[in-house]
Amino acid sequence: MIDIVLGGSSAQVLTIKIGRQLKIPTILPEIKKFPDGEKYIRITEDVNGKTVAIIQSFYHQPDEFLIEYFLIADTLKDLGAKKVIGVIPYFAYARQDERFKPGEAISFKIVTKLIEEVGTDEIYTIDTHLHRVEQLSEIFHIPAHNLTAVPLLAQYVKKNFELNNPVVIGPDEEAEQWAKIAAKELEAEYDILEKERLGPSEVRIKTRELDVTGKDVLIVDDIISTGGTMVEAIKMLKEHGAKSVIAACTHPILVRNALTRIYQAGALAVIGTDTVPSSISFISVAPIIAEALRRG
Amino acid sequence: MIDIVLGGSSAQVLTIKIGRQLKIPTILPEIKKFPDGEKYIRITEDVNGKTVAIIQSFYHQPDEFLIEYFLIADTLKDLGAKKVIGVIPYFAYARQDERFKPGEAISFKIVTKLIEEVGTDEIYTIDTHLHRVEQLSEIFHIPAHNLTAVPLLAQYVKKNFELNNPVVIGPDEEAEQWAKIAAKELEAEYDILEKERLGPSEVRIKTRELDVTGKDVLIVDDIISTGGTMVEAIKMLKEHGAKSVIAACTHPILVRNALTRIYQAGALAVIGTDTVPSSISFISVAPIIAEALRRG
Amino acid sequence: MIDIVLGGSSAQVLTIKIGRQLKIPTILPEIKKFPDGEKYIRITEDVNGKTVAIIQSFYHQPDEFLIEYFLIADTLKDLGAKKVIGVIPYFAYARQDERFKPGEAISFKIVTKLIEEVGTDEIYTIDTHLHRVEQLSEIFHIPAHNLTAVPLLAQYVKKNFELNNPVVIGPDEEAEQWAKIAAKELEAEYDILEKERLGPSEVRIKTRELDVTGKDVLIVDDIISTGGTMVEAIKMLKEHGAKSVIAACTHPILVRNALTRIYQAGALAVIGTDTVPSSISFISVAPIIAEALRRG
Amino acid sequence: MIDIVLGGSSAQVLTIKIGRQLKIPTILPEIKKFPDGEKYIRITEDVNGKTVAIIQSFYHQPDEFLIEYFLIADTLKDLGAKKVIGVIPYFAYARQDERFKPGEAISFKIVTKLIEEVGTDEIYTIDTHLHRVEQLSEIFHIPAHNLTAVPLLAQYVKKNFELNNPVVIGPDEEAEQWAKIAAKELEAEYDILEKERLGPSEVRIKTRELDVTGKDVLIVDDIISTGGTMVEAIKMLKEHGAKSVIAACTHPILVRNALTRIYQAGALAVIGTDTVPSSISFISVAPIIAEALRRG
Questions:
Q1: Domain D4-148+284-295 grouped into CATH 3.50.50.60
Q2: Could B279 and D282 be called an inter-chain contact, meaning their C-beta atoms sit closer than 8 Å?
Q3: Class (C level, CATH) for B150-274
Q4: Which residues contact D57 (CB under 8 A, 6 or more apart)?
Q5: Any idea where the domains of chain D sit in the sequence?
Q6: Residue C200, pLDDT above cutoff 90
Q7: Is A260's CB within 8 Å of C17's CB?
Q8: How far is B133 from chain D (nearest CA, A)?
């Protein structure tokens, strides 16, 4: 079983919440920056013989959080930790799992190799968008699990909004997996948006089957980053007569004015989790991480 | 011999200068950032069978430049490069070579291990401040060389300032090595500053032997970061009658108002190299890197 | 009556929410940055003869948001706007209302003078911490109103947490005004913390009268910035037997690891509003701004 | 005559250099930032009855440096300063001197109005690029002078490079004014680049008259920001047989990889001044500011 949760600087509040739910000790290491940017890290508690979960999310400055992760994991093993579990709520560097053009760094493989090299024994992530693999474990050589926060998104919407016969929409084919989960939680129908070719240079997006007229719609995706996909989807749904649209995602990266543009497009609300702390991180993933670590 | 120099995003102008001096091809890889901060790297030239030197300096955002280094080095090997030489003009993460307090990350060892892990075959740095080891090669398991830019600092001062019977000062005992080199270049005497205990709680710094009265003084150190050491040294030298004081360093990290404070203390000029691009990087280390790579 | 709400780049989502509540047009000007940092601003809708409320909050980069405000307000007047109302949810530069030491800039007066100079006709702020004045209107020469978001904080807590006979605490004397408002909303008792001198160099903080043993406590303050005040208050309340402590503020500035430290001190939850978008901005001040603008 | 030079946080080293050349007192005010970003400013020396020159340059974060300027100037007058002279080596916000599209902020006029409003009595800038006005004084209502640093650029090149029968090139028509000045200093010929239309959609740039074949060329412009103009000019000059090309500017804004691209295009060297501290700020404008303030 897990003995200790330890929070890197990307996820300290989340770590405290997980520790409280698991009723086990929480370590927040001493982390300082020298004038040249070098990180100093010190783990002040005894970890000898313990199973330790490092909670560290790779958003905004993923390289900084990665190096911190390397230093912490390696040091835990050096201090005698029995097992090191990496919990990476938002896993950047999952895009490039192949060399699409000559000369590209296959960063997914290099980063996972280094994560293993520093002594990680097992990995958990949340709603990592896998592209050309089915399972995280096809990339990692250690046990690797991809959890989902989508049920939490659906539950939050159910609790905080009065939805009238809602439907769930995935903004593209790859989002069908999330739409399906949310729909089940809401006991609602779901569909995805797809592109219809109208002419040589004309395309429009539309639902595959569902009629959204007069419906309260929940759009679900793994990530909102520039917001482009959400904006397009919301506009289309409003044009087709949707009564209201709520946009939900696990990872609110929200670069530049993404949030403004989604509201401008007509969203009633935009919600996300604390895998990436943001102004729409209304939902904590602490319960699903705690539950996964408890089950082991 | 070396076939190609390749510049990471910390050192691209420096890389072009080195390439011109060596008259060999320069590669500047395609480097982009995704909205979540993930780096995309692509090496667009053929490196198969080649010996490639990666020029990457670890200042200001060392973690970002480190991850870039890992991605580039690993990819070069993956693309068939015969030999990968890491040239790290400013090497952050050289401080922590031991565990001084329980639980500290020995970051120097972890970072060097990862640098080796990604396929680096040989390492060059410049004026790395080694603490508890004599040679860089005691930490690395690959050939590792610590070059010096101090002769360039002295030459620049000789060319650009009219010094009258100058002396060279190292601001503390650890700087004696640099003071000695600069003094030889200037055919001048050198000394270091040391602390003299005047009473139970009173300390003053002074030169060990040299009288600086009426002298043009060159202070030399490996790095200026907060500027505290330089400020104290300049004040002391001016109090002891130095006619003028020039402050020189290899690595101008210069955090916050370091430069202002050094000028306020009375420096005539403050100079540094381009291992860390800054407003006082008047000197390029390209010649010493080119020379070292040429000799191999 | 008010015709248009216009959002500066600090508060665009909030502006959209206010516009929806007031059912009036929302303008989001075109705002770009040139390579040298200069802002370009263009108001693309007709404002001639209109009463326009500019929503702009002065957090994190207050100088940038101030200059934007100046450019927008002046341009609105130049384009023929009848009346310009400045709505500044978080008003930085309210600290320095006097010259405490010789030579200090009395920045509150200078900033308000410039806000008036660019054509502002009326000002609204939220929970501005006034120090040596009773009313905002003692500083401004135009009508100036200081709204409060504290009732929203209390309502949120009532809705989202099961509190058992709660009490409200202001962490210091200046917070009594906020504690009183929250207590009224919760129909609860309130008190403040004060310092008790135990000996020549020993001080402890304690409630003035209330016994918090076994109570669910809500601490209310106008701002959380470094978190120091909250951390001390929570520790003291837990030591005195409080069953749970929720920390609430209007303005979640939250520098560095403030939030982590407050959770570490034992907070059950930490909540704030969107005057400063943050990871604890669970509550929008849109309703109170909309209501104030509607009343006029 | 001028009594004191005072440096804002954008230009403190420059201010010290000016003060030394003028042999007058230098004030560096106490400048701090509160956690919410608000600036605290305190002028610790007596300025009553004095003529004070504020040195503050508007680069990178011009809004922050503007607000600092407003606070300092207003406070100087409040403290009894007789005359406040604003010296703005790089003056951002000089672009928008008209409303080109409906609704645009005419930021040049708004910013100058506020600079005057806070008590500025006279203004100096360096190589401000004026567009639709001939003189800075057409915009300001106070005496306003636009100095030039171009002679310093030419002198630096003459001293540090062995040029063989050099020519000076302005990269476009607006740069003719700077090319002319540099040419006079170097006793060389000058020309500008212009666009030649080759067909309906084909354009090439070329010199108006001069043949650059075999020549050492100095390109001079007021500013390098993205570097696009310089890159195009250098490529063209190299194609036409220029032996070497040095790129010089007064204001090295140098966004993103501008410098790398200019070197890649074939520049032998790239140089600029300290109006914008940068890695190519080899030349200080202190002498020309000191001289202008001395003349009064």
A1: no
A2: no
A3: alpha beta
A4: D8, D10, D11, D14, D65, D88, D89, D90, D275, D276
A5: 4-148+284-295, 150-274
A6: no
A7: no
A8: 33
